[in-house]
Design brief:
3 helices; mainly alpha; single chain; 0% strand; 55 residues
């Protein structure tokens, strides 16, 4: 499955998914990658909000 994103066209990335209003690109962005190392413990929601407001 890790090779699938390399084969998608721009239209396929923008296609609707089975996840409500999410396009294929949003589903892929929220799916864990088999090649990615495991994430450390999640930061608290207040930390995420602070990071989002400064970015």
């Amino acid at each position: 499955m890790a090779d699938v994103p390399d084969t998608l066209t721009p239209a396929q990335w923008d296609a609707p998914s089975l996840c409500g209003a999410w396009r294929v690109r949003e589903v892929a962005a929220h799916s864990p990658s088999a090649s990615a190392p495991p994430c450390p413990a999640s930061p608290s929601s207040s930390s995420r909000r602070a990071a989002a407001s400064t970015g």
